Amino acid sequence: MPEKKTVVPLIVIAALAALALWIDSPQHPSIKLGQFERDLNIKLGLDLQGGSHLVYRADLAGISDDDAADAMSGVRDVIERRVNSFGVSEPVVQTNRVGDERRIIVDLAGVHDPDEAIALIGETPQLDFRREVVEEEALQQFNIDDPSSIIGPIFERTELGGSNLRRATVSFDPVTGSPEVNLEFDGEGTDLFAELTRQNLNKRIAIYLDGVPISAPVVQSEITNGRAVISGGFTIDEAKQLARRLNAGALPIPIELIGQQRIGPTLGRLSVSQSLSAGILGLIAVIIWMIIFYRLPGVIAAIALLLYAIYFLAIIKLLGITLTLAGVAGLILSIGMAVDANVLIFERFRENIRADKSVGYALEAGFNEAWSSIKASNVSSLITALILYGFGTSIIRGFALTFSIGVILSMVTAITVTRTLLALTLRFKWTQTPFWLAASPREPIQ
User: Fold this and answer.
1) Which phi-psi region, left, alpha or beta, contains residue 85 (left: φ > 0; alpha: ψ -120 to 50)?
2) pLDDT band at residue 80 under the 50/70/90 scheme
3) Same domain, 115 and 153
4) Angle subtended by helix axes 296-319 and 4-24, to nearest 10
5) Domain that holds residue 19
6) 433 & 320 share domain
7) Measured between alpha carbons, how far is 17 from 163 in angstroms, rounded to an integer?
8) Does residue 45 contact residue 323 with C-beta atoms inside 8 Å?
9) Within this chain, do residues 270 and 300 fall inside the same structural domain, yes or no?
10) What is the DSSP letter of 217?
11) pLDDT by residue (tens digit) across 401-415?
12) DSSP classification of residue 125
């Protein structure tokens, strides 16, 4: 009977493989566990599925050279927040300088209508708060002679607006369970809101978005903590959309569209097909070579590599990582790292077999002796990947991310999957022969 220390890891490996296969299956486009919800469809970048390429010119009039870099960074951050809030997968937003001009380059994967992309970027939600004006005050302020001409309450704009908003979040009314949008103001906004509520007790304060009232609650007391709640009979999707729009904020400087291009998905489909073909052919070639050269350990390595691929795809889908050609390259390169770890282990294992060690000792010692080399190699690769991720552009970061995941996963599969399957298989006498181990000791194996 296999030992407990072999059976337990085997059960864990099998359970994770079953879960990964479930996630990888196209029959399951999403997963939901309580509040956790994840779209499990594979997301492709601009180079793999096409999209829109936009070029904007920034108007830096009145901004000093010292502040120009910060202003451009602010524009880039706001645009990234906007397009992400509308579900665009991994936008590439870059800033550069052409002569005296500062430009913003925006690549949006999956958005094939440039007008739609322009609308996403150009939309600037305007949030403001208005106090209710009583009838007598309204008649005098707006020069209204006939009181009957007033339809409903009249609201006057105040100094409190979207520029004072720190963040917007979605919550649920503890009594009714209806979705609400919570607003949190900055320091200045907190003072303005406190003064506004103090002066308008038992009156309405209307919240306007793009000139349209979306909520007009009655002030019950002075609010000094800088927080407000918008409750308007929202659905959860409407509340989320409103919070996203409010969080997008306004552009810190004006921008002008000076170029646009639609990138078709044809090239992307060809790239996907060629990349998948290259990856599959490479994996098959590696598996064949491992089996021929290492025999039984090579078969185990092939199984480990297949599990590695299954696990990797599941991680990509769970994390919602957008795959680009560079990301696919990182995946393929990480397969080589997984093979390298197995090669180091098998070579140490064979050396111990040739040194007349028992199979059990050779296996254990082989892993222990190879671990230092595997660790050093993978750690150095991870450090390089982290540097690329930290200082590279979006495309380079995609490569670094998938490569890092692959490197970590290769260590896990080599140390756990390969080790467990080998320990289980080599318990049988018929597997402990020079032919199956591709190693001949000076004396028969004990």
Assistant:
1) alpha
2) confident
3) no
4) 50
5) 4-41+264-437
6) yes
7) 50
8) yes
9) yes
10) P
11) 888 898 888 888 877
12) -
**Contacts with 38 (C-beta within 8 Å, 6 or more apart), sequence order:** 30, 31, 32, 317, 318, 320
Q: What is the mean pLDDT of the chain?
A: 79
Rounded CA separation 333/321 (Å): 17
And the tokens for 77? Answer: 């951050």
Instruction: Answer yes or no: do 370 and 323 share one domain.
Output: yes
Radius of gyration of the chain (CA): 31
- How far is the C-alpha of 190 from the C-alpha of 194, rounded, in Å? 6
Would you say residue 141 has pLDDT above 70?
no
**Displacement of CA 414 from its chain's centroid (Å):** 27
Calculate the CA 328 to chain-centre distance. 16
* Total count of domains within the chain: 3
Is 264 exposed, middle or buried, given 0-12, 13-18 or 19+ CB atoms closer than 10 A? Answer: exposed
- The answer to whether residues 56 and 70 belong to one domain is yes
369 φ, ψ to 5°?
-70, -35
Question: Do 269 and 283 fall within a single domain?
Answer: yes
Tell me how far apart the alpha carbons of residues 263 and 53 are, in angstroms, rounded to a whole number: 7
To which H or E segment does residue 37 belong? strand 36-39
Give 154-208 as a DSSP string.
EEEEEEEEGGGEEEEEEEE-TTT--EEEEEEE-HHHHHHHHHHHHHTTTSBEEEE
User: What are 110-135's pLDDT values in tens digits?
Assistant: 777 777 777 767 655 567 888 887 66
Q: The tokens 């050396």 sit on which residue?
A: 351
Q: Copy the structure tokens of residue 318.
A: 């769970």
Q: Residue 310: which H helix or E strand, with range?
A: helix 296-319
Alpha helices per DSSP H over 61-171: 65-85, 114-122, 135-141
Query: pTM for the complete prediction?
Result: 0.61
Two tokens, residue 292: 């021929």
